[in-house]
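Hey, I was hoping to borrow your eyes for a little while. No rush at all, and the record is pasted right below.
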Amino acid sequence: LNACTQFLPTLDGRALLTVEDLGGPAHLNPAQDALVACHGSQCGFCTPGFVMSLTACYETHQAAGTRPTRQQLADALAGNLCRCTGYRPILDAGEQMFDTPARCLDRAPIAQALQALATDEPLDYGHKGARFHAPQSVQDLALLRDTYPQATLLAGSTDVGLWVNKQFRDLGDIIYTGRVAALHEIRAEPDGLWIGAAASLEDSWAALTAAVPRLRELWLRFASPPVRHAGTLGGNIANGSPIGDGAPALIALGADVILRRGAQQRRIKLQDFYLDYMKKDLQPGEFIEALLVPVPSADWRFSAHKIAKRHDSDISAVCAVLGVRLDAGVVQEARFAFGGMAATVRRAAAAEAAVVGQPWNEATAKAAAGAPD
């Protein structure tokens, strides 16, 4: 996680590890040892962050019994910037840390301490006239949202955190969704994949990519690993930015959004959720409970494209996710969703109409590209 966007009350019931917890001068951990051996620290300003990301990668692969490729190491470090441009020795250290016998963190005491905290009452914290609510059930969340419709809903805080540390905004009362276990669920339903609103971006995109492998590059370029592990797909959709990468993918897949107020649910097409720039079809007291994504049949073909100033860790200038359903080479249905082209994420209706009923070939694609939308 990026500490600069995390609010202190969201750490309630969690364990927080920093670089100081990994090892000291007399007992360096594998990532620290390898960085020293490979001269991976230059000015040193970015080194603690690289140590944390390398350690997370190390722990993940040791637990799985795997060893990352150099590209996988680069992907794991996509959220860490070295202004000295010392990436080669840092990647060298990432490879070398797997050469010695495994030395993983002892998590047993941490797990034991967290189990003791698991039975605590939901956090309700007050400070200077504002309250931080952390409900643990959907029912309690719905009640709080209905009671305090003007409160700020907080999930992964990858966006809301910037409202505070960049814009100095006063959030007022906060309702935190991160402790609601049911909102973290990702499960198969008869009519699609249910993704709870508080499921992390990482887990959500992993599930989407398992169903549609062509989305993998968009997943990796969506954001850095710390942001993907903290942020939520529900939050990305609720934000409503026309340059968010979640909506084009989900709209192209035909996703619905499940809205809730109190005990009442409302289900609408995601493409109808956005009314205008940063305006959503969301009533007072209502919140996003989940996204329901149809799993495409084998006759669907998808491609995803992102244009940005940087390859990694950058917002899109344009994001396009294109899908066609074919029968004997002829287009039966099309969904072309674009972000960054209008005030909201939009489908290209004229381009879709230009391809339906046509053979899927270069000429049809060119006709779609020239369709006036």
